[in-house]
Amino acid sequence: MKHPEWDAFYFTTASSMQIIAVSDKKTINQFLDLPKKIYAEDPNWISPLDQDIESVFNPDKNPFFSHGSCKRWILKNDDGAVIGRVAAFVNAKKAYQYEKPTGGMGFFECIQDQQAAFCLFDTAKNWLKEQGMEAMDGPINFGENDSFWGLLVEGFTQPSFGMNYNHAYYKPFFDNYGFVKVYEQITNHLAVRNPFPERFTKIANWVANKPGYTFEHFKKKNADKYVTDLMTIYNDAWKDFENFVPIKKETLQESFKKMEIIMDEKLIWFAYINGEPVSFVVIIPDANQLIKGFNGKLGLIEKLKFVYRKWVGVNRMRAIVMGTKSAFQKHGLESALFIKLKEYVLPMNQYDELELSWVGDFNDKMLAIHQATGATFGKRHLTMRKDF
């Protein structure tokens, strides 16, 4: 429902604008509250938790500050209403792996006004140029790419936890400013209760029963072992992709710490061959179903609702990441992991959908796995770049 006092917000023409750096509690709150106004009448949007957004900009909680820096701003019109926001960041470990030093831009939100959008883009660009950057990717996150990453251009349905959602009118802003697509991010949806295709099942069962092949789900009491195994597999699996930066153990530990409140141990699976960790899949219940209607807050009432909804259970899962060591990528291990997962999930009679998100259009092998499971298209995001 649109509030009357927001009339100036909705109908501004951005004739006179003021960029303000986020630097205190007031501007932080204005940064956090803007999307709640922009999407007030959009039934699909679910507000991320304020604390999750803030953790991105907190050096004590975001390990990327050890090798990077960031800054964020809000944009006000001549009536003093906040009409836009943006953040810019430099990840020194990745910035110089491109043809030109490339920074990042993200957490972009704006009213439907191209002048306002360009002002925000200019602000991010100018700061990045001061840091020695010659291009910027966006909209991306100052962190791993499993959350707050990409511009939604197809599939404007309710997002799962951590997945970017935006208005359709954002795309022309990016195009007209000169951003070009670097790659597409494909999300597919799998109907959990439908049987896997016969060929997929046959391969999976054959792999699962091979001598020396074992499968385990994550166990919190042995978290350190599984985090180490995941890091080993992930860094081997992705090493040949362009601009790949190995993931650190402390980054994974922080990610698992954030997931702990919603984690189901039996949705995270590992495959081993003669004891060597070779493949994994990380799946979490969709927390957006738990925090819907919280408006970004997590006070006492919201926590009680959260606990109740968790007890009742959600009906959607999200596959955050999968990986298989390069030497074992044609062994059908992913098929076996999905079978193991289904053996746990189906008897629960709880989950209806698994969102497989997201896979770059450059990752033919993973897209082929999605297709083999019988998954159907869900969403398309773009990672875009502006060359200065």
Give an overview in words:
The protein is α+β, with helices and mostly antiparallel strands. The protein has two domains: 4-148, 3-Layer(aba) Sandwich (Aminopeptidase); 193-351, Aminopeptidase. The protein contains 13 helices and 13 strands. It has helices at residues 7-11, 25-38, 50-56, 92-95, 114-130, 170-177, 198-208, 223-237, 249-259, 288-291, 300-312, 333-348, 364-373, and strands at residues 18-21, 68-76, 82-91, 102-110, 135-138, 151-154, 180-191, 213-217, 268-273, 276-285, 316-324, 353-360, 376-387. Strands 1, 2, 3, 4, 5, 6, 7, 8, 9, 10, 11, 12 and 13 form a 13-stranded mixed sheet that branches. Helix 7 (198-208) packs across helix 12 (333-348) and helix 8 crosses helix 9 (249-259). The longest helix has 17 residues, at 114-130. The protein is globular and about 70 Å long. The chain starts with 6 loop residues before the first helix and ends with a strand. Mean pLDDT is 91; it is low at 1-14.
